[in-house]
């Protein structure tokens, strides 16, 4: 990531907190100013020791400078640390809000673990670079210049010696900074890989155990962890080189100043008190130089995180509609659905999934989509929900192109049950009201009966407040499907999309739920992808798809008589899975 873009992204995070950062910087500068006065007070003390003047006042002044400087700098450090935490919080809020609005293709392109690491570990690195790095660079630079000015006032020759050593060692330090940036970037990528592998393993934990793959998955995580460790150690090595160079520069400067300064004292060019004050300034120079080196180091570390965060911020999102906050709820009128010569492919480098799909669903009733695997049936639902945008043609809901609908309004009218019927971690109640947060207890009780979940809820230890586990692991496959269906029905949708929603139900529950769907179809438009003959025969119309095209549309009897593919499916696939 170019330095200009890095600084622009850095300033975007820094800008809302610039007032607090300025206050912290001011307090740090005040503390630094009290420190700068200490060598001068020490010089006055040494001069008075050689005469008869009182030293009590100078000692009191020195003590006051130390106490005041310490208190002010401590408060300034607290302000900066608090601001740093605020920067991280704001960055996480912004990033989380953006990631949850990503377009589905973006989420499918990137591993979830990688996205999560950008919210967690990458934003943590912002803490130092957006406050400490900026403030250290500013206050360290100003303090460095002020100290150099005071040293020049003391003795220009000794200053030249000091700067010569600092420039020599500083040039060597500048060469290691890019090494820190590269090592940190690779370490962060390895941390993201750890999150990705763990997310995959926990997402299919039973499969991992059933396959005896624990050792193999552990080896993959270990490899990523070792890679992160290796690059982290490399970054630490270069950071230690940069950090110790400050002490080396000061120590070499001290020896050079002590030797040359002693000679100048002996020749009478400067006084002993001047040499003492200059040496104090030299030691005081450790702090601003350390801050400058620390700022450069933190910038190299943080720039890698900023680049990854900026990359996530560039991902394409679904922008919220201007009316999304007040989107109308689902109405009583069933929706019509029309596909007009729709073409679609998931990416430009992939083949087309739909090759001119056309069909019409006029209103209430059940429409079943059947066909071989890969025919494009599930993709129909993804296009209706606008998870994906059609490559060509038009999709009309109530005669209105879906691209003209505000997303919130469109999706508020749709109930959708996915193929794998996901259940979220949490309670049964939280899952049911996930799509209808304003549902009443009466609404929930009604949908439990309709989805044949009432007996299950009565058996659960905490009823509706029973925790279902990660991805509903404490429920059976059929129970998860019924929860997903109940969740969709609770939205009172005008359009209900069921993608093999009864595939994991036993015969009794499948028959009962079929009646629920048939009842819903009397006042709602129901589109269902089905592989069971018992479900398909209930449909008012059946759309037969093959190789991304609509092959035939009709009733079960019409298609058995008139379409060979449907007749074959009805005689084999449907009957085999019924």
Can you give a write-up of this model?
There is one protein chain. The chain has 578 residues and is α/β, with parallel strands linked by helices. The protein has helices at residues 3-14, 18-49, 56-99, 104-109, 112-124, 126-154, 156-203, 205-210, 214-267, 272-284, 286-313, 377-384, 407-412, 428-432, 441-450, 454-459, 477-490, 507-520, 533-536, 556-562, 564-577; strands at 337-344, 354-361, 365-370, 392-397, 400-401, 414-417, 495-499, 525-529, 541-546, 549-554. The strands form 2 sheets. A 6-stranded mixed beta sheet has the order 6-7-8-3-9-10, sandwiched between helices. α7 (156-203) packs antiparallel against α9 and α9 runs antiparallel to α10 (272-284). It is elongated and about 120 Å long.
